[in-house]
Structure formats: structure tokens, C-alpha cells
Design brief:
Radius of gyration: 25 Å
Mean pLDDT: 96
CATH class of one domain: Alpha Beta
Shape: globular
Largest sheet: 8 strands, mixed
Low-confidence stretches: none
Strand order of the largest sheet: 14-13-10-8-9-16-17-27
CATH topology of one domain: Rossmann fold
Oligomer: single chain
Strand content: 15-25%
Number of strands: 34
Bound molecules: 5'-O-[(S)-butoxy(hydroxy)phosphoryl]adenosine
Amino acid sequence: MPKLKKTKQPKLVVRDKGKKNMFWPSPEMKKRAWISDKGIYDAAADNPLAFWENRAREGISWFKEWNKVYEAKPPYFKWFVGATLNASYNCLDRHVEAGNGNDVALIWEPEPVDEEPRVFTYSMLLEQVSKFANVLKSLGVRKGDRVGIYLPMLPEVHIAMLACARIGAMHSVVFSAFSPESLKKRLIDAEAKVLIISDGYYRRGKKITLKERVDPILGETKVRNVVVVKRFKEAIELQQGRDLWWQDLIVNASPDCAPEQMDSESTLFILYTSGTTGKPKGILHDTGGYLTQAYWTSKLNFDLHPGELIWCTADIGWITGHTYTCYGPYSLGVKTLIYEGAPDFPKEDRFWEIVEKYRVTVFYTAPTAIRMFAKIGAKHLKKHDLSSIRILGTVGEPIDEAAWMWYFENVGNSNCPVIDTWWQTETGGTLINALPGIGPFIPTVAGKSFPGTKHILLDEEGKEVHGDSGGYLVQLPPFAPGMLRGVYKNPAKYLEEYWGHYGKEIYYTSDGARYENGFFRITGRVDDVMKVAGHRLSTAEVENAIENHAFVSECAVVPMEDSIKGHVPVAFVVLKKSEPSEHLEHELVQEVVKAIGPTAKPKEILFVDDLPKTRSGKIMRRLLRKMLAKKEVGDTTTLQNPESVEHLQKAVRDFLHSDH
Ligand code: WT7
């Protein structure tokens, strides 16, 4: 193989003199960074409202300024009260108006290697978005309406989102790998009038079709029109009057569509996420606050400069995809890359080939992907010139030291800051991480609260925890501008999940954390939410799916540690009368795939006689978790049925034995 001529990579980090695995920004990094003075933290903490007010003024274009920067009636709060803006104007028009219309905005890489990528400049994107906004209007979509988007990673997904934003409709994007059943639930809850899908997409060389899988669920929804993006050549059946080709509609649409002047607090989008119950919550995000946080976290965390390219590998169905493939990069006017397919197709080096081909500046991915690449081995990276990368990011779950170091050394060539960003669907943008020009970068440690926000740790009683014993992570007012404003059509859920633990002025994150060297180390969820390959799933949702089967009496689902996916669901199932069998096991797994999607597939179904229960009849999932982790189960005398423990332990032991 010819030796690659790599571009000289500036040294962006230096090792701490005292601590082996602690890194700091180099003088070069500090020089290029937007922020390198740690005084920003104290200055912002002294007056967070002034801090955010200045950020909003500097980063975002408003039609009308606010008359009050922040207003709180706990647990409700508003930012930029009385101001108006448009998110699509901020993402597109203003860059074109500033003379940067010919700058590249979006690069789309298809999975098939023989197909051409699609590249959009800001002017091109503005034209497409305006046209599609007019299409939506012609289909009767008005300000405040909800539009369902069930699209894979195609340019049209961004175009559709920004078109909704342009006319003041709320988008509700549903992960295209979720099952049509879960799409149905979300469409019904949102009362979406219009749904946007594609005929399909490529995944690992296969054509995955979407349209015919969606057809059967539409009758139960309020969807009047389905706009179908044509990805394949094959003809498919369209229902006359209801289904329309995107490509046909766009041809005749006018490229002029004035952006609606939206109230800062008006909802930009709904994004459903799993909570502790079986029913997904429609998280509501506002326009002005969300965009301000998206803009500033993109700019400061990833130190993005004009002309640079961010590749955030998250699917658009997740908040990471919303904020860091779409709203963040576009509002900054930089380049964003989206890729249609699998990370290892056609070969294991596909991701690195893409990084080299487009000279990616910022690479942002999930620990599960990092662990997968580490397992495959670094030789695939060596074939490629990754020297364009300046900043690495990680998100979605706690990252272990080995994965962090592998990422740092192999992808970043021991030269780039690794920014471990803690946040949630609810927070809209990142909240806890190191800044590249300030540091330090420490494996497993996320860092500090973003300037102008404040997090602390509390114990069960609500007393602040200072030492390294750990506690519950909470956020204090003024709440970050990008925070959720509610749960769609479910105000009770909003009150209970976020403000029901420590009162109406303390946002409860459901995460545990502890201090390490004064920085936050996030230890993970303390509720019944699992992170499976970075995907957020509720144990109750998986249980509901399994309990759907006529033979199942009851069931408990708990996460078990997995070396690649972080956690995988394991189901303990009590049957009615029938006998356990492989066939039945397969049927139960299929119930989960049908109700939620393949991401939620249980790793194992353990048929058991009984589940451990408290005197009040609650299933003790904690006990099952401990068994799977081979930990001592502790005191079981408070159980209603302590005799169940021994038999459960045997079932778990047999499973673990056969598995490893
Ligand atoms: C949960 C939120 C927000 C983007 C993707 C996930 C976990 C997220 C980290 C991190 C440790 C993390 C938390 C959080 N999490 N980032 N850097 N370190 N844990 O969004 O699907 O809403 O999940 O992901 O447990 O509560 P999400």
C-alpha cells in the first residue's frame, strides 16, 4: 500500500504532568478556540440572565426583541418573552443574505458506494425548504399543526423539518427503525395531519421498504396526506387522493415562502421519548431558547469555525440528530454531513473513508459505536487520513476509560480533545461537558455545567452532596434556555417526572452522578429507563409488548451489561399455563419488534415461575438487575415471596453460564 501523505495535524492537547489520563488544551488549541479563558464560568454564573441575553443577541437573528429575558412561574419558565423569530430563517436566509449562499450547507452520503453524494449550498437548501414549505401549505398545514416525519437519513428529512419551522408547524420526527406500531402511537398522540416518509432506504446493501409497512396503520390516525420521498426506482402503490410523491409536488412549488414570525416560546417540535411508563412522552421544545442553546453549544463545545464540517452520526430520530446534524450546524452556517447507511458497510472502514473523503472537522458519535470500532480493531483506521479531525465528541451513555482512550488515541491520533457531552432529549442541547479551549479532558468524566447553567448533586432527602459519594443530578434555575417546556397533552407527566422529586424549582434528571476532581462523572439512569446501544427505552414499554402475548401472565424486563451496546434488555417471563419453548421465545421477541422495533429486542427470555415482589405487589426489578450483574442480592426478607429468589438465581446462573 502506498504511504499516505497526511496533513500535518496541530497538537491540540497536552498530557497533565501529574495525572496520566488527564489532558489539557495545547497552546495551539487555546489559540484557535472561541473560548479559552475559564473566567467565562464565573462571569456567566454571576449573571446567567445577562449571559444568555447576550448570547441570544449575538447568535440569533430576531424579528422582534424580547421585553423580558426570563420569566418563571415554577415549574414553568419562559425565555425571551415577547420576542419573535423563525428557526428556518436563522438556519438559512440570514446566511444567504450575508452573501454566503454558495457555502456548502449539507453533504449527504448515500450507502451504496456507486451512487453520487448530494451536496446542498445554503442557497439551494433555502430554495428546497421554501418550496416544500409551500407544498405543506397547499396540503392545508397551518401554524401550530403537527407534521409527522418518518424518514431515514436523507436530505429531505432536514428539508422537511426546516419547512415545518418556516411555516410554524411543529414537526414530530419518528426514528425510521421504530416499528409502524410505534409510529402509529405517536401520530395519534400528535394528531398529525400530514406524514412524510420515503419508499425506503438502503441498509447494509439491502433495500428496506417503508411505504407498505406504514399503509396498514394510517387508518387509525388523522393523517390526510402522505408525502413519499422516492428513493428507489421500483414502482409502488399510492392511494389516490392521499399519497403524493415528494418529487412531483416540489416541481411546481414556488421557491418563495416568507418565514412566519414565531413567538420565541412557540413550539418548534415535539420529540417522543421513553419514560418510566409504557407510554412515550411528547417532549416539547420552544423556538428561541432551543435555538440559542443549539447555536452556542455547537459553536463552543465543538469549536466550530466558518467552513468547518461537523459529522454527528446520530439518527435524526433522536434529539442528537435534531440539534447537532440540523439546527446547531445550520444556525452557525457551517457544513453538516449525514450518512444514510451502516457504519461497517460495505467494509469496516466506511466511517473513516467518509471522514477522509470530506475532511470532517468535528466527529461526534456514541460510546456504543466507539466500542464496536475498538472491537473490530484500529487497522481499518490506519488506511485513512483522519488528520482533518480537530474535535471528537461522545454522547448517549457513560463512556468507560478503555473506549475513551481508544477513541482518543486511534481516531484522534492523541491530538484532539474528546468532549464527553451529557444531556437528554428534555434538555434540547448539551449541558455538562468540558470546553475544548479550557479542558480538562478526562476519560469517564463529562465535566462542568455549560456556562450560564447550574447542576448539583442531591441525596434522597434533598440535601446537597459535596464529596465524591455521589447523588442525584439536578438542575437549578434559571433553567437552560433549551429545556423542555412541557409534555404534549400531558401536563401531569411533566409535573411528576421532572418536578415531583425535589419540588418545582429543581429539575430532576433521573441520572446519578458523582464528583471527580470537582467535575461531574455521570453514572447513569436511576429509573426504569435503559440505554441500549445509546437508544433510550423504557423497561415498561418492552414489558407491555411481551405481555401482549396471550400465553404471558406477567413479565419483568431489566437491563444487563453488554460489552458493545452498554446494556441489553433481558426479560423474565411467567407463563399462564403453557410450556416454555423456543418457538414461544421467538414469538415473544417478535412481539417486541412489532411493538417497538428491532432496537428493543430482548437478548434473552427467561421463563420463570414467579417474580420477586414487595409486600405491596411491586416487582423488584432491582433484584433481577443485581442477579444479572452477578452481585449479591442482599436482604430479601421484605419480599412477599422470598422463596422465589433461589429459583430465579438458578435460572440466571444457567443463562449466564450458557452465554459466556
Ligand atoms: C440519557 C438521555 C442527549 C443525547 C442522547 C441521549 C444518558 C447522555 C451521556 C453522557 C453519561 C449520558 C443519561 C441521560 N447520557 N449523555 N455523556 N454520559 N450518560 O438522549 O435518549 O434522551 O437519553 O442518556 O442517562 O439521562 P436521551
